[in-house]
Amino acid sequence: MIAALIALLFLGGSNPILENIDLYQDRTKTVITDEIRQDKAKAVLKSMEKRVKSQNKIRKDIGDQLGDLLEDQADSDAQLDAIWDTYADETKAYDSDMLDLRFELKQHVQREEWVAIFADPKKKL
After folding, report:
1. Would you place residue 17 in the very low, low, confident or very high pLDDT band (cuts 50, 70, 90)?
2. Is the N or the C terminus of the chain less surrounded, counting Cβ atoms within 10 Å?
3. Helix spans in 11-109 (H)
4. CA–CA separation, 3 and 70 (whole Å)
5. What domain range is 54 assigned to?
6. Is residue 122 part of a domain?
7. Is residue 123 a part of any domain in this protein?
8. Which percentage of the chain shows pLDDT scores above 90?
9. 74: CB partners within 8 A, 6+ apart
10. Total structural domains in the chain?
11. Burial class of residue 41 (count of CB atoms within 10 Å of its CB; 0-12, 13-18, 19+)
């Protein structure tokens, strides 16, 4: 059970925002013609990119802590609980930050622009 949880933590899946952030930034340059809104939208996307990278580092650090704890066979429930609580708190903060950034981005991007920017990454504009 614990091994499965650690695998999930390490292999928690790719992050579509980070995978496609360059594409979204390029599309923003193409789709939003107003320079002021374009600059603000690009700044928010840059903040998203930094936050995703930060979260990935946090996840790796927590995974390392779990791995070390299990490797040492120090099966202390309190230690495991503390690490998982940290992970849950960090995930909640990340989700909240990304939601806030999404709403901030929506302030600078019109509906039609949003659809074009975040269309299927395989689709050419």
Report:
1. low
2. N
3. 16-19, 21-31, 35-71, 77-106
4. 9
5. 2-117
6. no
7. no
8. 54
9. none
10. 1
11. buried
Answer whether residue 76 is part of any domain: yes
Kindly report the average pLDDT of the chain as a whole number: 85
Q: For 37-88, how does the pLDDT look when each residue is reduced to its tens digit (9 = 90+)?
A: 999 999 999 999 999 999 989 989 988 888 887 777 656 778 888 888 999 9
Q: For residue 13, with 0-12 CB atoms within 10 Å meaning exposed, 13-18 middle and 19 or more buried, which class applies?
A: exposed
Structure-block tokens of residue 10: 């390490």
According to the model, what pLDDT value does residue 37 have? 97
- Residue 56 one-letter amino acid: N
d(CA 63, CA 114): 35
Which tokens go with 106? Answer: 């929506």
Distance CA 114, CA 46 (A): 16
CA 58 to chain centre: 11
- Does 4 score more than 70 pLDDT? no
CA dist 125 and 112 (Å) reads 13
